[in-house]
């Protein structure tokens, strides 16, 4: 299986991305097309792949331009058809790659994916899913930013797609929750109330409303919400985790005793960080497109990139898209008035 | 100054609430009317206030019924006019109390406050503000659940009211941010885009859009959003903080070395917890009503109740409501089409 990696995107530059590609090729049966400036990439590959068997599984596909992190996504993908992101999706379109992984401009990656590959049949809106760590297992939240304004049918389809994706975590009958501000069925805004009715009569394993405080408990496998709310949830969680670690570090650095204590407890801290680290879960898959596209955090480490590449391999192996298409073809009949 | 405390609400029972009242009376010049079953309250006061000077600042006002945590708020306040929450707001209405503090059913407290005291002139919708700890100082977020569906004028007024409230933290020209999913002015849903225009031309110190990840950085004093988004932010932050602490504790308990390390670093952990503990910030004020109403977490400790009572004293002392009325009378002219 070939996967295209936008080797120019991300905050840490091509070295980190290429290192991730090598790690993935060492762990799984996968070939990786590094897309980007061939002179730059060849130089890095020469150094990083020296003496590593996995080096033979990397190829370079030239793309002369790149899309910056701050460029307007829609403008950029229209003007820079020869950018690494666009060339990567071109490889997916032509069948030369089964999936695309990018840590570059996420809006541009999203737009390029939908524009180049198109939507799966019957999918009204592709959406971005994100995997959150919880006290028990991971929970898939969708949408986390692709669709700012949604209708009930979109949330229903997010539930179907995210349920299909949760097969990656060996979840048999994924429990689906609807994110809102109270547990009773009447709680929430009008979007939530209408979506509740739709999910309630669907074939999904819908367990009802969930509140913000339930997200990290692990008693639900899939949580649906519109992309505005989902993106704020994602960002606020990241922000809180980072700020809390900073505050804790500040306090520890104030006393020598606390510093010694921290050193003794460090393995526990490391295990904790591993449990909550988004890098463990790869990237955010864009579900509902004809193909596989995974959007990684700009600051992804090589380890996170490796996991995103493995995630793409797994999505292909488990036929997630076929599963989505089948569910949306045979699934619940959606009344015309809510579409 | 007299403050009415719903002495029957909350998960920990009257003891915790009365202890909080005693602590407040020991710290500030305040008299507290404990509202609830007089037989029960008198028994607790006898024990808890024994030998404490502050005991003389407590009085008991009888209320024969209570509203349970799971009762429907609107039904409950209509049917139970003699409940501790309703009697407490009755004291505020008649001028016998300057403020009400409750850790009981929050929906009922909210409804009772609006129903009994009414709105301040020119306030379209009262809203609930919450104080979040950040890397720098506290940030006030409004609305966190009183208004599920909002219009731009409501968010603008939340900004005015929360700015007035932030005087409690000695903030001179509070920096106001609009919670959305991107920093540029065009980012967000239609509510956010229209609110942006309104805030931009207002007299407020509007610094533009803020994202979820900015909430805990402390570079903004006031953040506005609709009550659906705000409530989810509040609950997800609480849930993440609790779950993360549980995970960290699990990891520490796995090794003796880590346990020793934790013991050495415990003062640092305690300081950290103090910095992020909502109990430090009292309760959530309902702003925009003719009076002062503070809603506390059901699981509030005596310490949190004490801080909520002190918060009420400060709100009265600083004339927050007068400030809000003046701002909304002289403030920016809101174009008719957005009201």
Automatic annotation (TrEMBL), chains A, B:
Q: In which pathway does it act?
A: Lipid metabolism; phospholipid metabolism
As its record notes, the protein acts as a catalyst of: a fatty acyl-[ACP] + phosphate = an acyl phosphate + holo-[ACP]
Q: Which GO terms label this protein's molecular function in UniProt?
A: phosphate:acyl-[acyl carrier protein] acyltransferase activity
Q: Which UniProt keywords apply?
A: Acyltransferase, Cytoplasm, Lipid biosynthesis, Lipid metabolism, Phospholipid biosynthesis, Phospholipid metabolism, Transferase
InterPro entries xref list: FA_synthesis (IPR003664), Phospholipid_synth_PlsX-like (IPR012281)
Q: Does the keyword Lipid biosynthesis apply?
A: yes
Q: How does it assemble?
A: Homodimer. Probably interacts with PlsY.
What is the stated purpose of this protein? Answer: Catalyzes the reversible formation of acyl-phosphate (acyl-PO(4)) from acyl-[acyl-carrier-protein] (acyl-ACP). This enzyme utilizes acyl-ACP as fatty acyl donor, but not acyl-CoA.
Q: What is this protein called?
A: Phosphate acyltransferase
Q: Which organism is it from?
A: Desulfofustis glycolicus DSM 9705
